[in-house]
Fold:
Amino acid sequence: MNDIIKKSKNITLRRTKNTDLEFVISLEREQYNAQYIGQWSKESHINSLTEKDILHLIVEDSNTNKPIGYIIMAGIENRDNNIEFRRFVINNKGKGFGRETLKLIKEVSFKQLDAHRLWLDVRCKNTIAQNLYKSEGFKEEGTLRECVLYNGSYESIIIMSILEHEYKNN
Structure:
């Protein structure tokens, strides 16, 4: 099985290995990132690496071959062809890596995995991510009110998606 899923000029998406998990967990737990994404145990990450319905990926800078982020996608085997973009973290923020990675994820989802719908949830307070998703063709579907408990407070999330025909026309 080929570890490289997709490449662009600046980004390589490859399958996550056990040796990548310390990087993944440290990125997930970093204070800025932790306020926007869920936290998994190391065991959950390990289990996801062999789960057929999950695609756990490392984002590498193609110029340095160093990891700069990670992605978790779920529903790879969903009978309705709905893939969930579950986790997306880039540590080199503000350099365009996030946008380029998102473009690759859409391409992988719709061209390689035959998705009909790619969806995600994003915390309401994460306006930077919302704006990125909207600029890349994602549409708001609705809000799940106060459904995530973070640091003793409930937060709301927005469900967003892009459909295959929207991706093709974008």
